[in-house]
C-alpha cells in the first residue's frame, strides 16, 4: 500500500521538510524560517530529490525569470545549507557547471487525523459560497439545526449590520449575504461576532452557478472555530497577507465523485511566527518595491504602476549588494493601504520603495520615496519627468530611481556606522559600510573598514564574505600606500582567502579575492588567472571577477583580452556605487591596447566620481603624455605627487604585477616623463 503523501517528510540532516506545507523543522520540531527566495528554492529542489536542478530552472522558479546573477543563487544555497546543518555539502550538493542536487530520505510521520466524531450539538455549521468574480462574493451560511435558527439569524443580522452588508435571502436554517469584502476577512469577522462556536466552509461560485453542498461538507470537516476552504478559493487569497493557509490534502466529500483539495485558514494576526524573519546575520539588505500608485483614476494608469515597479525590480536585481523581493510578492500590496511596518514584517524587508505617477500629454511624472522599515525614516524622495511614447517605456527614470536608491542605502549604512555602537548595527550595514570606506583615500575611513570587518567576522564566523573582503583590504592597503611594509601583506591575505574557501569552496567572492591577492601581492599572474577562471565558471556574470581578470590581462600586456573582460564588467554594472573603480581599470585596459584617447576619456569619467584615486591619476597622466599633451600630463603628475608624496617609479615597479613584463617597463618610463621621481 502506498504511503499517504501528507504523512511523508524529507529527512535533511538534522532537519525535516514537509513538501505540502513547505515547512522546514529542526530536530526538536520547531519551525525554521528561511528567506522567501531560499524557501522557494528549497521547495523546487524538494520536488525533484536526487535530480540535478539547473541554475536556469532555479532562476525561473524563484525570480520568475528576472535577470539575476549566480551570486543570488549562491546566497540562497548557503542559507539552506546553514539552516539544515549541511556543513559537508553532501545533502545539498553543487553539480559543477550544471546546478544543484538535493539528496534526502523520505520518512513517514504520524499525523493526527481530522476528527470524524459528531460535533457538539451547540456548534453551528456555516458554509460560505464565495466570490462571483465580477459582482463580489456571496456568503451562503447554513445553520446546523432548525432549533438554533433564532440565535443563528440574530448572529448573522448582527454580522451583516456591523459589516455594512445586505442580507439577500434567507430560509429557516440558512442565509445568504451579498459581500464584496475579502472572503477571509468576512469569515474571521463571523467567528468574532457569533454567540456560539462556528464551523465555516468556503467554496467558489454563486448561488446560480452551483449548489452549496460542497461548502457545507467543507464546514463539516472543520472543528469548532475553524475555517475550511476548497482549492479554488486559495487562488484568491494571499498566504501571509490575507491569512495563513495549511494544506490538509485531498479529501473525499459526500456526494462528490472527485476528491477535493482542502485547506484550513487562520487569522494571520493570531498566528505566531507568520511573519517573515529578517536574519540579523544576513550580509545583504533587502528591499521591496511596491507598485507605484496612479494619481489619475484610469485602469491603464494602474497597469503602468505595476510596469514601473517591475522595471525597477528587474534593474535593481542585477546588484550583488541588495536582495530584492520578487514582484509576485510585493505586488500584493498594490491595492492595499498597508503600513510601512506591516509591509516590512510580512515581506521581511529592510527598505520599501514606493511612489506615485501621472501620465499626460506625452509626459510621465514619477514621484518616488525610499523608506527604512526599522525607523520609518524617509531616506530619499524626489520627482522626475520624462517624455514617453505610447508604450510608456521610461528607462531613464528607472535608472534614475535605481541609482539613487543604491546611493541612499550606502550613505545610510556609513552614517549609522559613524553614529551607532557596532553591536547595535545589522550585519549588512557593517559589510556595506566597510566596502564603501575601504575604497576611500582617507586613512581614518580605510582603517575604520578593517574594524567593521573584524566585528562582522566575530559575529558571523561561518560567513565567507567578510573574510574575503578582509583579504581585499590587505591588497588595497598596499595599492593606496597605507602599508608601512607592503611585503608583509600577502601572507595574511592568503590565509584569509583560504579560510573563506574552506567554509565555501565555490564562493565566488573568495575565489576572486584570492586572484586579487595573487595578482597584486604575490605577482603570480598565472595562478591568479586560474582562480578568476574558476570563479567565472561558477558565476559567468560576476562583474568584479570579469574586471580583475581583465586587469590581469592588462598587466601582461594583452590589451584586447583586457578590453573584452573590463568592458563586459562595465555592462554588468551600469549603476554600481563603485563605478569609478570599474571605469579606472577599464581605462587601464585601453591604455595597454594603445587606445589612449579612450583610456583618457574613461579615466576622466572615473575621476569625476573619485578625484583622489591615485591609480586613475597615473593612467590619466600616462595617456596624456602618449597623446603629446605634455603640459596637461605634468599637471596630472603634480596632483598625483601631492596625494602620494612618497611615490617613486622604482618602488612602484618593485611592487607592480607588471614588473616582469615589457608593458610595465614602458609604463614606468612614461611615469618618469610626467614628473614622478625615479
TrEMBL record:
Residues 7-104 bind DNA. The keyword DNA-binding applies. It comes from Ascidiaceihabitans donghaensis. Residues 7-104 form the OmpR/PhoB-type domain. One of its GO terms (biological process) is phosphorelay signal transduction system. This is Transcriptional activator CadC. InterPro entries: Nucleotide_cyclase, OmpR/PhoB-type_DNA-bd, Sig_transdc_resp-reg_C-effctor, TPR-like_helical_dom_sf, TPR_rpt, WH-like_DNA-bd_sf. Gene3D superfamilies: Tetratricopeptide repeat domain (1.25.40.10), TolB, N-terminal domain (3.40.50.10070), Winged helix-like DNA-binding domain superfamily/Winged helix DNA-binding domain (1.10.10.10). It comes from the Bacteria. Pfam families: Trans_reg_C. GO terms for molecular function: DNA binding. Keywords: DNA-binding.
Amino acid at each position: 500500500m502506498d504511503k499517504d503523501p501528507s504523512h511523508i517528510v524529507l529527512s535533511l540532516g538534522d532537519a525535516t521538510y514537509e513538501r505540502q506545507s513547505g515547512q522546514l523543522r529542526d530536530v526538536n520540531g520547531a519551525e525554521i524560517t528561511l528567506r522567501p527566495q531560499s524557501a522557494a528554492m528549497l521547495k523546487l529542489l524538494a520536488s525533484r530529490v536526487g535530480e540535478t536542478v539547473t541554475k536556469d530552472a532555479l532562476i525561473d522558479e524563484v525570480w520568475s525569470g528576472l535577470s539575476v546573477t549566480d551570486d543570488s543563487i549562491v546566497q540562497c544555497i548557503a542559507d539552506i545549507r546553514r539552516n539544515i546543518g549541511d556543513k559537508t555539502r553532501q545533502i545539498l550538493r553543487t553539480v559543477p557547471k550544471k546546478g544543484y542536487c538535493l539528496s534526502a530520505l523520505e520518512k513517514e510521520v504520524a499525523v493526527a487525523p481530522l476528527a470524524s466524531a459528531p460535533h457538539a450539538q451547540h456548534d453551528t455549521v456555516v458554509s460560505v459560497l464565495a466570490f462571483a468574480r465580477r459582482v463580489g462574493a456571496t456568503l451562503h451560511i447554513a445553520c446546523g439545526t432548525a432549533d438554533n435558527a433564532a440565535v443563528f439569524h440574530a448572529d448573522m443580522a448582527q454580522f451583516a449590520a456591523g459589516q455594512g452588508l445586505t442580507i439577500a435571502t434567507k430560509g429557516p436554517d440558512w442565509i445568504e449575504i451579498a459581500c464584496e469584502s475579502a472572503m477571509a476577512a468576512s469569515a474571521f469577522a463571523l467567528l468574532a461576532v457569533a454567540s456560539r462556536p462556528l464551523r465555516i466552509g468556503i467554496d467558489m461560485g454563486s448561488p446560480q452557478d452551483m449548489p452549496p453542498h460542497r461548502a457545507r461538507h467543507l464546514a463539516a470537516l472543520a472543528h469548532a472555530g475553524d475555517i475550511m476552504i476548497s482549492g479554488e478559493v486559495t487562488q484568491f487569497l494571499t498566504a501571509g497577507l490575507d491569512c495563513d493557509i495549511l494544506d490538509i490534502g485531498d479529501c473525499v466529500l459526500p456526494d462528490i465523485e472527485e476528491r477535493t483539495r482542502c485547506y484550513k485558514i487562520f487569522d494571520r494576526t493570531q498566528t505566531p511566527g507568520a511573519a517573515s524573519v529578517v536574519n540579523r546575520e544576513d550580509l545583504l539588505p533587502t528591499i521591496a518595491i511596491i507598485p507605484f500608485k496612479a494619481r489619475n483614476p484610469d485602469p491603464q494608469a494602474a497597469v503602468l504602476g505595476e510596469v514601473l515597479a517591475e522595471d525597477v525590480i528587474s534593474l535593481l536585481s542585477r546588484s550583488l549588494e541588495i536582495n530584492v523581493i520578487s514582484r509576485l510578492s510585493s505586488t500584493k500590496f498594490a491595492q492595499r493601504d498597508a503600513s510601512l511596518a506591516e509591509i516590512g514584517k510580512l515581506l521581511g524587508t529592510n527598505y520599501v520603495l514606493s511612489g506615485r505617477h501621472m501620465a499626460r500629454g506625452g509626459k510621465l511624472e514619477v514621484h518616488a520615496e525610499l523608506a527604512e522599515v526599522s525607523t520609518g525614516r524617509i531616506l530619499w524622495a524626489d520627482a522626475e519627468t520624462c517624455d514617453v511614447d505610447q508604450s510608456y517605456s521610461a528607462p531613464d527614470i528607472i535608472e534614475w530611481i535605481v541609482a539613487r536608491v543604491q546611493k541612499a542605502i550606502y550613505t545610510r549604512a556609513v552614517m549609522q556606522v559613524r553614529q551607532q555602537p557596532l553591536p547595535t548595527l545589522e550585519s549588512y550595514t557593517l559589510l556595506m559600510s566597510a566596502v564603501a570606506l575601504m575604497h576611500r583615500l582617507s586613512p581614518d575611513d580605510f582603517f575604520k573598514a578593517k574594524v567593521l570587518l573584524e566585528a562582522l567576522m566575530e559575529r558571523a564566523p561561518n560567513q565567507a564574505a567578510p573574510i574575503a573582503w578582509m583579504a581585499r583590504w590587505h591588497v588595497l592597503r598596499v595599492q593606496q600606500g597605507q602599508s608601512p611594509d607592503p611585503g608583509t601583506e600577502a601572507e595574511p591575505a592568503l590565509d584569509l582567502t583560504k579560510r573563506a574557501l574552506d567554509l565555501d569552496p565555490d564562493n565566488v567572492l573568495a575565489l576572486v579575492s584570492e586572484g586579487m591577492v595573487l595578482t597584486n601581492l604575490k605577482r603570480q599572474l598565472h595562478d591568479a588567472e586560474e582562480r578568476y577562471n574558476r570563479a567565472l565558471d561558477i558565476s559567468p556574470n560576476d562583474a568584479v571577477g570579469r574586471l580583475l581578470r581583465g586587469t590581469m590581462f592588462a598587466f601582461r600586456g594583452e590589451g584586447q583580452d583586457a578590453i573584452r573582460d573590463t568592458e563586459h564588467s562595465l555592462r554588468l554594472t551600469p549603476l554600481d556605487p563603485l563605478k569609478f573603480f570599474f571605469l579606472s581599470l577599464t581605462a587601464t585596459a585601453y591604455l595597454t591596447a594603445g587606445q589612449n584617447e579612450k583610456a583618457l576619456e574613461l579615466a576622466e569619467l572615473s575621476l569625476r566620481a573619485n578625484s583622489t584615486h591615485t591609480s586613475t591619476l597615473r593612467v590619466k597622466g600616462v595617456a596624456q603624455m602618449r597623446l603629446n599633451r605634455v603640459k596637461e600630463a605634468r599637471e596630472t603628475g603634480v596632483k598625483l605627487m601631492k596625494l602620494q608624496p612618497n611615490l617613486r617609479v622604482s618602488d612602484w615597479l618593485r611592487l607592480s604585477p607588471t614588473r616582469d613584463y615589457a608593458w610595465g617597463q614602458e609604463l614606468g618610463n612614461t611615469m618618469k616623463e610626467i614628473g614622478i621621481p625615479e
